[in-house]
Amino acid sequence: MKRTAKLFGMILAVLMLLTSVKVDAATDWNSGTITATGYGVPTTGTHGAQARYLARRAAIADAYRQLLEITKGVQVDSETTVEMMMVTSDIIRTKVSGTVNGARVIDEKMTPDGGYEVTVQIGMFGQNSLADAVIERPTGPAEVVPFPAPQPTMPSAPSVTITVSGGYTGVVIDCRGLGLNPVMSPVIKDASGNKLYGHKNIDPDYVIQHGMASYAHDMSMASRAGSNPLVIKAVSLADHNANPVVSVDDGNLMLLENNSAHFLSSTAVVFLY
Q1: Span 115-143, pLDDT tens digits
Q2: Which residue, of 110, 123, 175, 249, is most buried by count of CB atoms within 10 Å of its CB?
Q3: Which residues lie closer than 8 Å to 47 by C-beta, 6 or more apart?
Q4: CA 33/CA 15 separation, integer angstroms
Q5: How many whole angstroms separate alpha carbon 71 and alpha carbon 75?
Q6: How many other C-beta atoms lie within 10 A of the C-beta of residue 10?
Q7: Buried b (16+ CB within 10 A) or exposed e, 11-44
Q8: Rounded to an integer, what distance in angstroms lies between the CA atom of residue 185 and that of residue 203?
Q9: Measured distance CA(211)–CA(205) in Å, rounded
């Protein structure tokens, strides 16, 4: 009986070491970061420095585990999650695991109950980022597809000539109220189904470093589009609500202004959602 109780105590201690009290993870589509917080408690019968060490180790292991789970669920595009890519490619699975295991510890502290809390974070874009792990670079020179050619007149009213401002620093697509689902590689379409903006229009290395767009809930968080953005209201969403759709006229206007200011090439794009 005593041996059984002792064995049960040992198993319980191991479980307490490996399992957190609670977990937290978040994907911030505006800053382009994935953050997870792990919580650990010391094993029964430990005290002082040893207890803190064991609690911290448990918290770190838990934070990495939670970070991997949230990362797997990130949408790369409208059809594909990171987990899908990991299943189909051993190389991508190894790269994603390496990215998660290399996450930065951005905060750690003791908790009032004697446990430990550790917060880790990876970037979606940039060096050693998720994009670096899942976006494949071409073996040769990148074949960048030019943006569609805009028309100098309004498609809905050919007699109306568009005057190009030339002073826009970026574009904000207002998708609020439509239920936009953020993805790493979005596409902007017009109401006729034409693709106006996507990863094929941008150098892959630039996409890996900077991403295609940021996501914000209001204009105060839309700094990526610069101080004077062109603001366009989306008319609908496509492809599982991942890709904004703008009117044909607004899409044409965006392309005309981009011809002058080239803000699409620098991915100065923000989606409000």
Answers
A1: 899 999 999 999 999 999 999 888 877 78
A2: 175
A3: none
A4: 30
A5: 9
A6: 12
A7: eebeebbeebbebebebebbebbbbbbbbbbbbe
A8: 13
A9: 10
